[in-house]
């Protein structure tokens, strides 16, 4: 099995490009509110890009070849690959479903292989337990893909946010943690368009 690495798109942009991946696709989800808040905290030297799995709409994995081979037959897979190759780091915003992370997120991860290697990633979990069990399970997958996994930020209902996903509780700690996460992503990554 040969592993091909997609060629990153060229970039003259000095900004770090950080993807904000919204993993829930439920109709009444709140993840997009949390993602908006994370995006607002992006420093000036970061271009935060929303990657909303509900809008991206990947079907259940339908590639005939193994993702590690990089021989993508489906246009949606090639488009997904280009989106991931166009970022320098990733923040996954996730809730917790039955002590795990959302199925659409696992599906989106499984579509690709080489695109994930060495990509810095951090999670922002939300829910009654701050999605800690979901993030623990997710970390195993991300580490298997050789991503640079950073310390997560866990937002709990009642302490950090409302059940509607509003960051309305006066607690500066989550905001500082997200700002630190951005700094770590920038430090851990390098622009993917810069000749690797």
UniProtKB/TrEMBL annotation:
A Pfam family: FMN_red
GO molecular function: FMN binding; oxidoreductase activity
Annotated ranges, domain NADPH-dependent FMN reductase-like: 17-157
Domain of life: Bacteria
GO CC, any one term: cytosol
PANTHER family (UniProt xref): CHROMATE REDUCTASE, NAD(P)H-DEPENDENT FMN REDUCTASE LOT6
Protein name according to UniProt: NAD(P)H-dependent FMN reductase
Organism: Naumannella cuiyingiana
């Amino acid at each position: 099995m040969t592993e091909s690495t997609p060629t990153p798109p060229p970039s003259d942009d000095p900004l770090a490009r950080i993807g904000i991946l919204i993993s829930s696709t439920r109709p009444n989800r709140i993840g997009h509110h949390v993602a908006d808040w994370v995006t607002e905290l992006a420093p000036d030297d970061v271009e935060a890009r929303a990657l909303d799995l509900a809008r991206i709409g990947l079907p259940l994995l339908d590639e005939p070849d193994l993702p590690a081979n990089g021989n993508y037959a489906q246009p949606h897979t090639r488009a997904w690959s280009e989106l991931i190759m166009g970022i320098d780091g990733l923040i996954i915003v996730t809730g917790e479903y039955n002590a795990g992370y959302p199925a659409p997120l696992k599906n989106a991860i499984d579509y690709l292989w080489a695109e994930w290697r060495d990509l810095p990633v951090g999670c922002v979990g939300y829910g009654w337990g701050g999605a800690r069990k979901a993030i623990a399970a997710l970390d195993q997958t991300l580490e298997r893909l050789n991503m640079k996994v950073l310390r997560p930020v866990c937002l709990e209902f009642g302490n950090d946010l409302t059940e509607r996903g509003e960051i309305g509780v006066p607690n500066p700690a989550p905001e500082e943690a997200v700002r630190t996460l951005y700094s770590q992503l920038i430090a851990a990554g390098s622009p993917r368009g810069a000749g690797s």
